[in-house]
Amino acid sequence: MKQAGHDRNVDPAVSVGYGLLLRAGFALTYVIYAMLFKLANQHGGSGPVDMLFYRALFALPLVFAWSARRSGIATLIPKSPIAHLCRSALGILAVLFTYESFILLPLPLAVTISFTAPIFATLLSALILHERVALHHWLAVAIGFAGIAIASKPGAANISSGSVAIAMTSAVLQGAVTVTLRRLGRKETAGSIAFWFLVCSLFVGAAAMPSYGHWPDRTGLVLLAVGGVVSALMQVMMTASLQHAPVALLSPIDYSQIVWAALLGLAVFGAMPSAETLLGATLVTASGVMVTWFDRRARRRAEASFVP
């Protein structure tokens, strides 16, 4: 199947615009998915294990159908099963901590802290992959951590240091997942990675449900089901956006999640973001955009200096 982003008959500007639109959709659906799971906790007391199980249950068929239609069922066959298991184990831990942060923290703050994951990915890349980290990356790391310190302000507005620690742990694990995906992505398709992660999530969630799960009420079950479907849509839009536009162009759009989280947090939960949260979110966004801008400029220089 010919990808639209590579079709010679498609105007490149139109393709990039479509990619940007898909990425904006991904940013919005991520916050909706987080909001639905937070609401599910308030209807029947659904916890992280429930969220893990029901997300996989309802998202897996959709991701399978999309991946099979997009690139064929054969591409879902794993080339590195052990690598998939390791990535999935790390990813499951990350989402469990993420779900707990959704429950414990105001939505805008939980989303803001999640954006420290690229910061930890930078640190882990230097430590584990021994990648060279430029000075501007370290400056962005410092700005990002300053933003989180301001935004979280433990002890204020019923925000405990333990809740912030859980969200930060989630970000560390997400950063580790990013590092593992860099290697796994060299051998496996995006559809295969997403599919097998959901398969592992379903098995782990099913095994943990008897001991740690909660039976939600009807409203809670609907919220979990819709959240699972929205998460599948989120995954599809995120992956599809990469077929039409470069990561450097798409990444800044992800920070619109902070805006959506503030708006939905106010509309649904009646929670007005504090001035500290807004200032911290601004610093975190600035750190991420700075890294993206410098990386894009470095790539352009490298391309300009290349002599075939």
Q: How would you sum up this structure, described in words?
A:
There is one protein chain. The protein has 308 residues and is mainly alpha-helical. The chain has one domain. It is 78% helix and 0% strand. It is built from twelve helices and no strands. The chain has helices at residues 12-42, 48-71, 81-104, 107-114, 117-128, 135-152, 161-184, 190-212, 218-241, 247-254, 256-269, 275-305. Helix 3 runs antiparallel to helix 7 (161-184) and helix 5 (117-128) crosses helix 7. The chain is globular, with a radius of gyration of 19 Å.
Summarize this structure briefly.
This protein is mostly helical.
- The number of helical runs is 12
Computed CA radius of gyration, to the nearest angstrom? 19 Å
What's the domain count?
Answer: 1
Report the uncertain regions: 1-8
Structural category is mainly alpha
List keywords for this structure.
single chain; 308 residues; mainly alpha; 12 helices; 78% helix; globular; disordered N terminus
